[in-house]
């Protein structure tokens, strides 16, 4: 297997008969389970009311808050710290030989597909009535998670770029050759995922940067649209119509960013990891 990998480190069992490595299906199932649990926790603890109670009302009071502009450090730091802890646990697990450096696995795990930020995005556009207007209780949490996810995706460029360069330099992308046909199916998936990540992911990142650069909460966006419409239109129904229009623009931006990410970076990460796990399982 190592001849198909762009890195030299490995994780192997010292005695496969006593401690066999987990199967590809069990690893992918674990990924799915972790994503499901993380998504559920994100929905619960990403709500303004829950954040307000946990923080003793120091945070989570306003869906129009701009605190997400620096609070993304928290989910990013937690994710990288979790990667480091997992790497350390693997390295210290008895019965397995692991010759990687901690930072190598931290970067490698950054390329994992994550779902919680997408789930938060779907909830971020849900509103509730509050003080005579509508409030979006998941919006700040989504934006914090969204920025952190974008940075993690950029960190993953190291792994994806290294994999794509490794495959390209050896002619593994020449699909019409016997060399390509001789590659294990897992290797082909891994190389394809990395290349797809690099090419199509560009559209997702442009979409993400666009959303972040113009990001305002749907409530604030709608209020500004309503005030602007009210100052230029004497129609009594104009403020409400403009409020709805502004809200639709804000939520539309979120949905667009999520669609681009789902069909590019997130899908590419799954293809890459499924290929890697399958390649490891075949070895």
Layout of secondary structure:
Elements: E1 11-13, H1 24-45, H2 48-54, H3 68-71, H4 73-92, E2 96-98, H5 102-109, H6 116-124, E3 128-130, E4 133-135, H7 139-155, H8 157-169, H9 178-182, H10 185-213, H11 218-232, H12 238-282
Antiparallel strand pairs: 1-2, 3-4
What features would you describe in this structure?
- This protein has 283 residues and is mainly alpha-helical.
- It has one domain (24-124, 131-282).
- It is 69% helix and 4% strand.
- A two-stranded antiparallel sheet has the order 1-2. The chain has a two-stranded antiparallel sheet with strand order 3-4.
- The radius of gyration is 22 Å and the shape is globular.
- The termini are close together.
- Mean pLDDT is 80; it is low at 228-243.
Short description:
With 283 residues, this protein is mainly alpha-helical. It has helices at residues 24-45, 48-54, 68-71, 73-92, 102-109, 116-124, 139-155, 157-169, 178-182, 185-213, 218-232, 238-282; strands at residues 11-13, 96-98, 128-130, 133-135. The strands form 2 sheets. It has a two-stranded antiparallel ribbon. The chain has a two-stranded antiparallel ribbon with strand order 3-4.
């Amino acid at each position: 297997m190592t001849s198909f990998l762009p890195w030299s480190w490995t994780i192997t069992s010292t005695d496969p008969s006593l401690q066999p490595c987990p199967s590809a299906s069990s690893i992918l199932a674990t990924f799915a389970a972790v994503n499901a649990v993380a998504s559920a926790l994100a929905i619960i603890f990403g709500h303004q009311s829950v954040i307000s109670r946990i923080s003793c009302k120091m945070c989570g009071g306003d869906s129009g808050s701009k605190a997400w502009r620096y609070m993304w450090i928290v989910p990013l730091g937690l994710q990288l710290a979790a990667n480091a802890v997992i790497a350390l646990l693997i390295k210290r697990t008895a019965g397995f030989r692991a010759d990687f450096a901690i930072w190598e696995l931290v970067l490698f795990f950054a390329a994992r597909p994550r779902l919680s930020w997408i789930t938060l995005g779907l909830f971020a556009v849900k509103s509730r009535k509050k003080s005579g207007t509508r409030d979006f209780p998941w919006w700040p949490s989504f934006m914090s998670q969204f920025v952190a996810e974008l940075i993690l995706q950029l960190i993953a460029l190291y792994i994806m770029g290294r994999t794509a360069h490794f495959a390209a330099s050896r002619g593994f992308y020449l699909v019409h050759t016997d060399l390509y046909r001789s590659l294990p199916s897992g290797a082909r998936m891994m190389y394809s995922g990395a290349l797809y990540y690099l090419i199509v992911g560009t559209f997702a990142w442009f979409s993400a940067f666009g959303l972040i650069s113009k990001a305002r909460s749907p409530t604030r966006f709608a209020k500004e649209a309503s005030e602007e419409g009210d100052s230029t239109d004497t129609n009594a129904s104009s403020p409400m119509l403009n409020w709805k229009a502004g809200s639709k623009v804000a939520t539309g931006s979120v949905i667009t960013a999520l669609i681009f990410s789902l069909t590019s970076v997130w899908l590419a990460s799954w293809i890459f990891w499924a290929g890697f796990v399958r390649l490891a399982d075949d070895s």
